[in-house]
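Our platform keeps sequence and structure together, in a single record for each protein. Such a record has a labelled line for the sequence and another for the backbone structure tokens. Nothing more is needed to write down the fold, since each code stands for a local backbone conformation. For reference, a complete record is included directly beneath this paragraph:
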Amino acid sequence: MRFDVSVIGLYILDVLGRPVTRIPERGNVEFIEEIRLTVAGTAGGTVVDTAKLGLRSLAVGAVGDDEKADWVLHTLGKHGVDTSAMQRLPGVPTSATILNVRPNGDRPALHVRGASDHFTVPEALEDLVFDAPIVHLGGTGLLRALDGAASAALLRAAKARGRIVTFDLIAAHAGTLALVDPLLPFIDFFLPSIEEARDMSGQKTPEDCARFYLDRGTTCCVFTLGAEGAYYAHRDGTRLASPAYEVDVVDTTGCGDAFDAGFIAALHHRLDTETALRFAQAAAGLVATGLGSDAGIVSFEHTLETMRTWPVKKR
């Protein structure tokens, strides 16, 4: 196949500044240490990280017809991401977010929804989009045109071609379950945070959340638990809890996207389940050490070494 992974969904330009302790009054200025621009979003952040981890990565999404689009497409290309399936939509802005990163890593955001709301995958693009053994859909909840029946048709087509489907979402709440539920039978690896899993299911523990989604058709749940690590639950009965690493957190933007990328890279390299979890957590931890959704990730080998040498948190 031409690609190792096809990453479909939410592409955003993030403008990040840190550390932000307050917004100045009136027209005053406050000085901070760092400002960065990054390609982000549950697809954009993931595809950059998969490329940095050495995978041949296809970006499948939309930008507007503005200066932000120029930067996003240029930056994807700089990282070695194939952008031949990216759409440039006239008359709408590129999706973008301003993030004010606090000293503790919290990141209150201001977001323009933009092009990702208008993005779909035309049937004519499917041969290109599915030219990878792993297909990732990221951003359900902020993909207005693709959410719902169009996503179900897309994932059904991916499974009909024998692809491994990984899935993540964004800004999930109880109502998001209506979008996710029809997709679950076509998802091999369901990768939300535990907060998202709880908000949609109404369950509390990782075990109960996993049972909820497994009963609705997904093959495997992989939940990120923040400072508590990660939890894996497969339809075959496998259950595995993995502790978090000790990380000096700078910014948590994109940690979930990096976890997705790390897990996808682990699937590509056919790592065993425990190592796959550890590798995905190392990728997420590296991102937390810097500003932006791709901070800290250098290569597959560097992430593997990080996985082997970083201390884990004591329970």
